[in-house]
Amino acid sequence: IGIRILGTLIENLAEIVKDQIPQLGDIIKRGIQDSSLKVQVYTLELIKKLLEWVSLESEIQHISSLIPDILQVVLKSIQTLSKNIQNEEVPEVSKEEIIMGMEVMNEIVEIPSSTINKYIPMILEHMIQISLCLPTGTCFLPDLPLSTNG
After folding, report:
1. C or N terminus of the chain, fewer CB within 10 Å?
2. From CA 129, how far away is CA 118, in angstroms rounded?
3. What is the pTM of this model?
4. How many angstroms separate the CA atoms of 79 and 71, rounded?
5. CB neighbour burial string for 55-90, b if at least 16 within 10 angstroms, e if fewer
6. Residue 105, SS3?
7. Residue 40 contacts residue 32 (beta carbons within 8 Å)
8. Backbone phi, then psi, for 53, in 5-degree steps?
């Protein structure tokens, strides 16, 4: 719930909260790495709201350092939804939430900064894997390595 409240604060008081991005980094990192997929997805929503306000190179570095985790959450969301549908279970994550995660990645790659360059091979690899599974509606992807070497 704290992540959702923080997202609402950023949405409504962005100019005030924007200056706190470096201090929010630890909270965001813990949220995106939480064991709960819902908390991870709520954190993606928070990141999406933050992306509207980042402009300084230091802010971009904080956000770009989360790219491996963001990719992992998007992949995990697709895998989980696919598994839920195949097993006729109540979905843990919605298609809209997956689309929102993809929008976060789109916004990140549009940031004019050399900071994200080292993540481009990783992003491409994951986007290719995602594009291969989306047309079929089934997506049981192997865990892809999330190295930042590049």
Report:
1. N
2. 19
3. 0.74
4. 12
5. eeeebbebbbbbbbbbbbbbbbbbbbbbeeeeeeee
6. helix
7. yes
8. -120, -10
